[in-house]
C-alpha cells in the first residue's frame, strides 16, 4: 500500500501511526512523506513541507516498484502538494484512494492555507473513493456549520455531490457517551450491494419499495483486534439514490486520542488492500480504531494527548 502523509516527530500521529496500523494489518507501507513536523503530544512547533517535485518522485518510485492495492492520503501541507497528488489520482496511478483531509491539528493549528483547501475541494475530492473529514474539516470543505447528526449527514452528502464516492464525517470531537460517525454514499450499484450485505437485511422491503432502516449491533468481526468490552451499532438507511451508514461505538474516556483519524483512514485503506469493499473496510476500521483507543486508554506516554494502541500491545500483555 502507499501512504502519502507527514511525519509526526512525537510518533503518535501521521506517517508513524500509519506504519503501525498497516503493520498490524499485515500490509507493507510505502511512505511518500509530505512534510517534516516538530511536535510533541501537546502542540505543533514547526512544519517543513516537502517540495511537490520530491513528493511526486516518491510516489513515482513506489508505483513503479510495487503493486499498490490501496492508497491513503493524509496531511499534504501545501497547495502544490494537493495539486500534484490530485494529478496522480486523476491519472489513475493510485487505486482505492482514501483522502483524510488533515487541515488543522487537534490542537487547532492550521496545517494548510485557503488555496490549499480550495485545491482539495476542486481537484482532490472529486477523484477520491472516500474522504474522511472530522467535523471542523467537513465545515471548512462544505462551508456549512455542523451541529448534530443530521448536519453530519448533510455535509457528507455535499461531499459526495462534490465528487467523492463515499464521505465519512467523523464525530470524534463531539462529546457524549458514544463516538459516532456518519457515512454518506453515492448511488452506485456496488455501494448499494455492499450496504445491503452489511445490513444482512432479512426483512421484506417496505410496501413502497424502499429498504427499511436497519439496526445491527455486533461484536468485532474476525481478523480485527478485539476488546471484549467493545460493541458497536450500525444503522443503514437508503433514501432515494442516497445511502447513509451511522457507526456508533462507546466513547472511551481517555486523553490518549492522538492519531485516531490517521489510524482510521489507514485501516480503511489497508482493509481494501486486503480485498474488502469500501463499506466493509469502513466498518472493520471503526472496530480497529475503537479497540486501539481502548487498548491505550490507561497509558501515560507524553504530557499531552498520547498515542493509541494500533499494535494491540494491551491485548498481548
Ligand atoms: N474517545 C473516543 N472513543 C471512541 N472513539 C473515538 C474517540 N475519539 C475518536 N474516536 C473515533 O476515532 C475516529 C477518528 O475520529 P476523530 O474525529 O478523532 O478524527 P480526527 O479528528 O481526524 O483525528 P485526529 O485528531 O487524529 O486528526 C472516529 O471513528 C471517531 O469516532
Ligand atoms: Mg484528523
Describe this structure as you would to a colleague.
The protein is α/β, with parallel strands linked by helices and 317 residues long. The protein has a single domain (2-183, 254-316), classed as Ribokinase (UDP-N-acetylmuramoyl-L-alanine:D-glutamate ligase, 3-Layer(aba) Sandwich), CATH 3.40.1190.20. It has ten helices and eleven strands. It has helices at residues 14-24, 52-65, 79-90, 114-124, 135-142, 149-161, 189-199, 260-273, 278-295, 313-316, and strands spanning 2-8, 30-39, 44-49, 71-73, 97-99, 130-131, 166-170, 178-185, 214-218, 232-239, 242-250. It has an eleven-stranded mixed beta sheet with strand order 3-2-1-4-5-6-7-8-11-10-9. Strand 7 and strand 8 (178-185) form a beta hairpin. Helix 1 (14-24) packs across helix 8 (260-273) and helix 5 packs across helix 6 (149-161). The chain is globular, with a radius of gyration of 18 Å. The two termini are 29 Å apart. The structure holds adenosine-5'-triphosphate and magnesium ion (MG). The site of adenosine-5'-triphosphate has 23 residues, from strand 8, helix 8 and helix 9.
Amino acid at each position: 500500500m502507499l501512504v502519502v502523509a507527514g511525519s509526526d516527530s512525537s510518533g503518535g500521529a501521521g506517517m508513524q501511526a500509519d506504519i503501525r496500523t498497516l503493520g498490524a494489518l499485515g500490509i507493507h507501507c510505502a511512505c511518500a512523506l509530505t512534510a517534516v513536523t516538530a511536535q510533541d503530544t501537546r502542540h505543533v512547533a514547526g512544519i517543513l513541507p516537502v517540495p511537490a517535485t520530491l513528493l511526486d518522485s516518491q510516489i513515482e518510485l513506489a508505483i513503479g516498484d510495487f503493486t499498490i492495492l490501496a492508497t491513503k492520503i493524509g496531511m499534504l501541507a501545501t497547495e502544490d502538494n494537493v495539486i500534484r497528488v490530485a494529478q496522480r489520482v486523476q491519472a489513475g496511478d493510485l487505486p482505492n484512494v482514501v483522502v483524510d483531509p488533515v487541515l488543522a491539528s487537534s490542537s487547532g493549528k492550521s496545517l494548510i492555507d485557503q488555496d490549499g483547501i480550495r485545491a482539495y475541494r476542486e481537484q482532490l475530492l472529486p477523484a477520491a473513493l472516500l474522504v474522511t473529514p472530522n467535523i471542523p474539516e467537513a465545515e471548512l470543505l462544505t462551508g456549512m456549520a455542523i451541529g448534530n447528526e443530521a448536519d453530519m449527514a448533510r455535509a457528507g452528502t455535499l461531499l459526495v455531490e462534490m465528487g467523492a464516492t463515499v464521505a465519512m464525517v467523523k464525530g470524534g470531537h463531539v462529546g457524549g457517551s458514544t463516538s459516532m460517525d456518519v457515512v454518506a454514499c453515492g448511488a452506485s450499484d456496488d455501494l448499494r450491494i455492499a450496504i445491503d450485505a452489511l445490513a444482512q437485511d432479512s426483512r421484506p422491503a417496505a410496501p413502497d419499495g424502499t429498504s427499511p432502516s436497519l439496526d445491527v449491533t455486533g461484536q468485532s468481526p474476525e481478523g480485527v483486534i478485539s476488546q471484549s468490552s467493545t460493541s458497536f451499532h450500525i444503522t443503514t438507511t437508503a433514501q432515494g439514490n442516497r445511502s447513509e451508514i451511522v457507526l456508533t461505538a462507546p466513547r472511551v474516556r481517555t486523553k490518549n486520542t492522538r492519531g485516531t483519524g490517521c489510524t482510521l483512514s489507514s485501516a480503511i485503506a489497508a482493509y481494501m488492500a486486503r480485498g474488502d469493499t469500501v463499506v466493509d473496510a469502513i466498518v472493520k476500521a471503526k472496530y480497529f480504531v475503537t479497540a486501539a483507543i481502548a487498548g491505550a486508554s490507561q497509558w501515560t506516554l507524553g504530557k499531552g494527548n498520547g498515542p493509541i494502541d494500533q499494535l494491540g500491545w494491551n491485548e498481548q500483555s
